[in-house]
Amino acid sequence: MRIGIISDVHSNIEALEAVLAEVEAKGCALVVCLGDVVGYGASPNECCERIREVAEICLLGNHDAASCGRMDYSRYYNAARQALAWTASRLTPENEEWLASLPYVDRLGNVGLSHGSPLEPEKYHYVYEAEQAERVLPIAESLPAITFIGHSHLCKAFAVEGGRVREIEAERFRLAEGVRYLVSAGSVGQPRDGDSRACFATFDTVSREVAWHRVAYDIEASARRIFDADLPVNFGKRLFLGI
């Protein structure tokens, strides 16, 4: 079975629709979302409703938690606070209630799912580099063979074996026996690795292969929505740069 793993949609309906079309084209049997459906962008309700339609599992990202009242975001930087307040004021009651019901973590067989690090998932720790991934070592034995995470908006993978962590430098790879993996699925709606295309991951449970995929989408339309909504303009500008 092939699973489509999406994360960090961030209210970008143009990117989400492009990714979902590619997920279907690749024959994914089901879709899971690692959270941050909303925030930054201008289409929160559209993205919530689309994810509710297609995702077998959806997690609570930090922007989701802030927008539905499950997290205090007063310490976020000013532009992020503006976008969160804007989002919270526009969510329908149904979508707000749905976001508030989402879990921090979940599991699909031997596949773990977490928005940030699986260590203290409610604290949304980032995993950018092996140094952050090493913090899961005390709980490594309790983790499934592979755990997909989001939050960093990066496409990265780390192998955890023998009390050590190493980064995997590949666009696709297969799981090795006796090794645990942390895999960051990238971002659908706001990539931050210099590639402006939307990103998602797939995992084939038979071949045990992980791969990342890039999808071009109408960035101009998504950015225009942000500008027209009077959201902070940098959230639109950065889409063109992939930062």
UniProtKB/TrEMBL annotation:
Signal peptide coordinates: none
Coiled-coil segments on the chain, per record: none
Entry-linked Gene3D superfamilies: 3.60.21.10
Domain Calcineurin-like phosphoesterase as annotated: residue spans: 1-206
GO MF term list: phosphatase activity
UniProt superkingdom: Bacteria
Gene Ontology annotations for the cellular component aspect, listed alphabetically: cytoplasm
Family: Belongs to the metallophosphoesterase superfamily. YfcE family.
Protein name: ICC-like protein phosphoesterase
